[in-house]
Amino acid sequence: MKSKHRHELKTNELAEWLANFPQWIKENQKTIIGVVVLIVVIIGFYSWKSFKSAVHEQERLEFTGILNSVSEAKMLTMDAQMRGNNDVSYLLLQRAGDLKKFADKTGNDNIAAIALIKQADAIRTELHYRMEDITEKVLTEQINQAKTSYTKAIELSSSNNSLKAIATYGLGLCAEELGNFNEARQIYQDIADNPDFEGTATVSQAKLRLKTMSDYEKDIVFLPAPITEPDITMSPQMQIIPADSNMPLDMNSIGANLPFDINLANIISTQTDSNLPDSNVPIE
Questions:
Q1: I need a labelling partner for 143 at 20 to 30 A (CA). Which of 171, 175, 218, 268 fits?
Q2: Is 201 a member of any domain?
Q3: CB distance 172 to 184 below 8 Å
């Protein structure tokens, strides 16, 4: 009986709560809405964080793959040069295009700056690796493309001094490759003097470049090879005395200039062979 009575009380309480539920919601409407909004925000925050982490991981893998492909293009180009195969330096320009596309779509300014720096490096490297002759027009166009990428990287990396210094150093290299050595020297000096760049590895590179720039400004002149005197062995000359019918022939003086003993030859020629028949004896 007691158990049945308790069950009836609980049923009555539940029915009463359900009957008063609309009124309770109306009275606590603001509190309920606040709690629901808070729950939605928490769920959305963790969902967005997970999604963003997944996107960053995918971007990181894509970027790493592109950088690896740049290294592979360099190796293939150098291998083709050593084997004497067709020029494949154009692969570096293709990878440079991939880096530019990646920089344009990523939402991270620092990663975009790195991609643009690597793109500019690939464009400049292709000029050094190309096997065919490069015209002044092609050189100027490609170096200007690299300068544009370095400049954009400087803008994106305004809060990252290391990246900004690297991109600025790239502009100095571009100036050198165009033959503007005074401009390049000023860029390197600005890097060395900039307190924002203090402590970065680029400062040491800029100072070293300033010390060695004069070696790159000089034109290389190949001196003519020294003339070597040929090693000619002079053979002994033989003095030939013309015959004079009015003068007796001095056999001893001639024999002294000959490589054999002419007196010995005369002796041999005057000897007779006992086995030969006498010229006065008729041959039967």
A1: 218
A2: yes
A3: yes
Give the Cα separation of 105 and 62 in Å (integer): 12
Q: What distance in Å separates the CA atoms of residue 122 and residue 70, rounded to the nearest whole number?
A: 7
Within a 13 Å sphere around the CA of 169, how many CA atoms are in the beta-carbon half?
25
Give the tens place of pLDDT for each residue, 118-130: 999 999 999 999 9
Element (H, E) at 56: helix 29-83
Q: CA distances (Å), 234 to each of 231, 237, 238, in order? A: 9, 9, 12
pLDDT reading at 153 higher than 60: yes
In-domain check, residue 245:
no
Report how many domains make up the chain: 1
Q: Is the pLDDT of residue 230 over 60?
A: no
> Running DSSP on this structure, what letter comes out for residue 195?
G
Write down the residue that tokens 């690597």 correspond to: 118
Cβ–Cβ < 8 Å for 124, 108:
no
Tens-digit pLDDT profile for residues 191-201: 999 999 999 99
Please state, in angstroms and rounded to a whole number, the distance separating the CA atoms of residues 95 and 274.
102
Q: How far apart are CA 230 and CA 236, in angstroms?
A: 18
| Domain region containing 204 | 160-217
Q: How far apart are CA 29 and CA 122, in angstroms?
A: 62
Reported pTM: 0.59
Quick check: is 211 in a domain?
Answer: yes
223: left (phi over 0), alpha (psi -120 to 50) or beta: beta
DSSP 64: H
pLDDT digits (tens, 9 = 90+) for 11-70: 666 666 666 667 666 666 666 666 656 555 555 554 444 444 555 788 889 989 999 999
